[in-house]
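Recap from last week: sequence in, structure out.
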Amino acid sequence: MDDQANTAVSAPPAVVTVPPEQDATRKEGGSKLWIVIVAVVLILGLLITGLVLLIRSGTDTTSHWRDIFIIIMALESLIIGLALVILIVQLATLINLIQHEIKPILNSTSETVNTLKGTTKFLSENLTGPVIELNAQVAAVKAFFDVLRPGKNRRR
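Predicted structure tokens:
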């Protein structure tokens, strides 16, 4: 009987599950990062190997230094091209964000402001205006009676 009571009281262990979208995105982003890192290391290794072989070739001619300079310029253009590709991707992401997330927020804000304008106009025409007119009339009646009874309202 004690075994049955213990099994009935004990709760199953808590299981934390990651939604499949997040798990797939996390794995996909990690694999892309590793591919980029391996490609960059491979390109740098080939360039450094080429430069070392050109420098050790034995002769100190202008053509070797020209070739080294051309390799350095190619590396520079490769880096600039990669930076431009990253910039274009970021720009596309920003445009997507503006079109699909910020624009609807601005539209709903505009609708809210228009509703608020209508509500304020309605309240000013139907509540505030009549209350102000009533207060003005009450003040006029009070001033009229103050004129009729001048002795009571004098301040000392």
